[in-house]
């Protein structure tokens, strides 16, 4: 079984129904059984707001939704809407777009997001890596994770391309999980990315979650990287679906 835990609606389609069809077709073409679609934090977005994505995939047995949320966009009403969705079990977590927005993961204004996630026992996801990496640098996320042991955090992109630093700093933060979306972006970096992943998965097999960042990245390339990893069958099962099922509470 394969779960792609980091998907976005693709932008190159005229409306949400066609974006949905393209995403589902991509899963089918690549043999992916289930997926998690991450909504934008903005209220109007080509990849869909929380409301857009929740309504588009309502009742789906193969797609779950993560709600993007930001203090910059009708914060109180969005927190209320996310609470409603969590109460109805319509979303599987919350995401903060650290780096895409000028938000540090330790900013006090994000406390209501972390409190809401802890109350409903769902993870909070963070964007990490690339040019604005300082907003959710590993040392900051470690500070946050240590201060909030009852929260579960998912570190998307593993501080790409500095995966070794990511795993070294966050290795002992057992409430932090690693989402490997986007890490196959640059073919030239694949040997070092593969080596870092193999070592870390051997050491922390229950903390890695497969994702592709489809919508921005090629799902097939990330599947190829995953297939090439020299890891055990048990580690592969956890990586490709088991950890996602546990962290996001996905029902079979």
Automatic annotation (TrEMBL):
The record's section on Pfam families has:
Amidohydro_2
Q: Where is the signal peptide?
A: none
The protein's name: Amidohydrolase-related domain-containing protein
Question: Which top-level group of life is the source organism from?
Answer: Bacteria
All copies of domain Amidohydrolase-related, residue ranges: 86-250
The UniProt GO MF terms for this protein read:
hydrolase activity
Provide the species name: Ruminococcus flavefaciens
